[in-house]
Amino acid sequence: MAPRIPTAEQLAQVREDLALDIGGTGDWRSRVQDEYPDDRRSGEAADMLSKLEASVADIPDELIARYDALWTNEDHEDHLHEMTEDWSQGTRAVGFGAAPSSAQKMVEKFVEEWEAKLAPPQAPEPKPRRRAIKS
User: Fold this and answer.
1) C-beta separation of 49 from 29 below 8 A
2) CA distance 37 to 48
3) Which of these, 31, 130, 135, 46, lies nearest to 96 by C-alpha position?
4) What pTM does this model have?
5) Cα four-point dihedral sign 58, 113, 25, 78
6) Which listed residue, 10, 13, 100, 130, has the most CB atoms within 10 A of its CB?
7) pLDDT, tens digit, for every residue of 49-87?
8) Per-residue pLDDT tens digits for 8-20
9) Which pairs count as long-range contacts for 112-117, CB under 8 Å and 24+ apart, including other chains?
10) What percent of the chain lies above the pLDDT cut of 90?
11) Residue 65 in 3-state DSSP?
12) How many beta carbons lie within 10 A of that of residue 119, not counting itself?
């Protein structure tokens, strides 16, 4: 099934959902920082996530549409749990081994990896025929 072509309103909703998700992870990191005030890593991660959340608005429509297609294409239903886990691990890793410079970079990485995983297998190139040498 061909992926849907999102409307401007749908793109705006995807952006909003993406920002809320990244921001939610930042809020969680802030709560962890409150629990462990001597370990500043979660606070630093929360700050990074806040900057990523703010940069969601700068993601080009084309990339938002590709991101949306991963989640809305019925052909991908069998992979939704794994994609969700992968995205969640990626947001939780910010500040703990991952330091994307922008939400665009974060989404690009996710989209490119999943588009590659979900792409249909390529047929092997046919081997050239050998011609028999007549003697």
Assistant:
1) yes
2) 17
3) 46
4) 0.83
5) positive
6) 100
7) 999 999 999 999 999 999 999 999 888 899 999 999 999
8) 999 999 999 999 9
9) 113/86, 114/70, 114/79, 114/83, 114/86, 115/66, 115/70, 117/79
10) 78
11) helix
12) 8
Residue at token pair 């939610």: 24
Q: Identify whether the C-beta of residue 104 lies closer than 8 Å to the C-beta of residue 60.
A: yes
- Distant-in-sequence contacts of 111-119, Cβ < 8 A, 24+ apart: 111/63, 111/66, 111/67, 111/70, 113/86, 114/70, 114/79, 114/83, 114/86, 115/66, 115/70, 117/79, 118/70, 118/75, 118/76, 118/79
Q: Please give the Cα distance from 99 to 106 (Å, whole number).
A: 9
Contact 32, 42 (CB under 8 A): yes
Pair of tokens at residue 100: 């994307």
For the residues 110-131, what does the mean pLDDT come to? Answer: 83
Residue 42's Cα: distance from chain center in Å? 21
Res 83: pLDDT? 95
Output the six-digit token pair for 120. 């249909």
Cβ proximity of 94 and 53 under 8 Å? no
Query: Residue for token digits 């007549």?
Result: 134
